[in-house]
């Protein structure tokens, strides 16, 4: 039996309030101080993962810090707590460790954590990219968007995930725009894409303007607050929000019935998996970053697969092949923590046609 562990953390205090209602009476400052003092702990045991080739079990381990704390506390404090969680995973017998949400960002995207542990570490970003792109392809097909003719925008293209998404998409699309806060680094990415694929990539001078023109948007900024609001999007657009916390405001779901927002990387796990913990997904499904850890465990890999801020396209291709080998697959489309039904997509397409006509003649 192969064994793994996956580390995650509460994204915000709202998550703590929902899990433990009595904490709502505490001032935010007191609750954050309590989280900082708490040690990492096992949340649940994961059982029932099985492909035709191997079986695996694992553990969810919680690092009690919010996303805001991960970004604002001194990095050495955050890394120390993540490493402590990793050592707990080692004691449990895990053979590979996955880093989830903001634990995969600090310490040079997992590199510093891996240096202090004796088991392989992965951020799961390779499979996250692969499954996000699989979701985009499926959503575009359902929304009757031809990727070859679409205006495609990657927001947060300087990051590891955004850069890799841009490089892979450049093999499939004709019109690609990249956006981020560092224009100089974007210029380097554009040159690299031109060398690799021959595609001349545009650099967004203004994010809001680029969003209003895009048919397909992939957003993965690492921002602690939303960067995409209802007024930013084109009727009929497909937006893949890979980021956690979300880059797309919840208001988009309420105010834009003519836009399809999907979550990146929702995966169906093979076997009769029991996560022992409800993280808001239907039974038997997980985030792609979690799934990468499971795939590596099933495969018996003894190396840290995805670390640092440079993702290899070859790695992404490899982990997608390994996922297929063990029976992992895209679990349909989800939007704001729920499945998207076919009739909803049809309604979005119809509303987009109406909104587009209204805008042309207004």
What would you say about this model in short?
By secondary structure, this protein is α/β, with parallel strands linked by helices.
Radius of gyration, in angstroms, nearest whole number:
20 Å
Physical arrangement of strands within the biggest beta sheet: 5-4-1-3-2-13
Estimate what percentage of residues fall within beta strands: 15-25%
Shape: globular
Main β-sheet description: 6 strands, mixed
- Number of E-type strands: 17
Describe the overall structure.
With 362 residues, this protein is an alpha/beta fold. It has two domains: 2-126 and 267-330, no CATH class; 133-265 and 333-361, 3-Layer(aba) Sandwich (Rossmann fold). 42% of the residues lie in helices and 19% in strands. It is built from 14 helices and 17 strands. It has helices at 13-19, 28-37, 67-72, 75-92, 106-109, 111-115, 125-142, 160-169, 183-197, 207-213, 251-255, 288-299, 313-326, 342-361; strands at 2-8, 41-50, 55-62, 97-99, 121-122, 151-155, 175-179, 202-203, 216-219, 238-241, 260-263, 266-268, 271-274, 285-287, 329-330, 334-335, 338-339. Strands 5-4-1-3-2-13 form a six-stranded mixed sheet. Strands 8-7-6-9-10-11 form a six-stranded parallel sheet, sandwiched between helices. Helix 7 (125-142) crosses helix 13 and helix 12 (288-299) packs across helix 13. It is globular, with a radius of gyration of 20 Å. The chain starts with a strand and ends with a helix.
């Amino acid at each position: 039996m192969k064994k793994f562990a996956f580390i995650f953390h509460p994204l915000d205090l709202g998550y703590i309030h929902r899990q433990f209602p009595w904490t709502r009476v505490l001032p935010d400052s007191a609750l954050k101080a309590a989280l900082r003092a708490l040690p990492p702990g096992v949340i649940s045991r994961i059982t029932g993962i099985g492909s035709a080739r191997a079986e695996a079990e694992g553990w969810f381990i919680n690092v009690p810090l919010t996303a805001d704390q991960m970004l604002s506390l001194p990095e050495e404090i955050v890394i120390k707590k993540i490493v402590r969680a990793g050592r707990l995973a080692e004691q449990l017998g895990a053979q590979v460790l996955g880093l989830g949400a903001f634990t995969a960002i600090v310490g040079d995207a997992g590199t510093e954590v891996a240096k202090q542990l004796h088991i392989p570490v992965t951020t799961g970003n390779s499979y996250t990219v692969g499954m996000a792109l699989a979701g985009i392809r499926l959503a575009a097909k359902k929304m009757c968007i031809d990727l070859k003719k679409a205006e495609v925008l990657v927001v947060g293209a300087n990051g590891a995930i955004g850069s890799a998404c841009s490089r892979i998409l450049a093999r499939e699309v004709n019109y690609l725009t990249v956006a981020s806060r560092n224009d100089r680094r974007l210029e380097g990415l554009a040159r690299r894409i031109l060398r690799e694929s021959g595609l001349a990539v545009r650099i967004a001078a203004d994010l809001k303007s680029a969003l209003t023109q895009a048919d397909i948007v992939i957003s993965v900024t690492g921002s602690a607050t939303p960067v995409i609001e209802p007024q930013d999007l084109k009727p009929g657009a497909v937006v893949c929000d890979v980021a956690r916390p979300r880059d797309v405001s919840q208001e988009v779901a309420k105010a834009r019935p003519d836009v399809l927002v999907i979550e990146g990387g929702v995966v169906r796990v093979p076997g009769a998996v029991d996560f022992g913990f409800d993280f808001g997904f239907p039974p038997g499904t997980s985030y792609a970053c979690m799934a990468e850890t499971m795939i590596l465990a099933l495969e018996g890999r003894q190396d840290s697969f995805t670390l640092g801020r440079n993702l290899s396209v070859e790695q992404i291709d490899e982990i997608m092949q390994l996922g297929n080998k063990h029976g992992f697959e895209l679990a349909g489309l989800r939007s704001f923590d729920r499945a998207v039904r076919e009739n909803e997509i049809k309604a979005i397409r119809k509303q987009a046609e109406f909104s587009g006509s209204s805008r042309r003649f207004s």
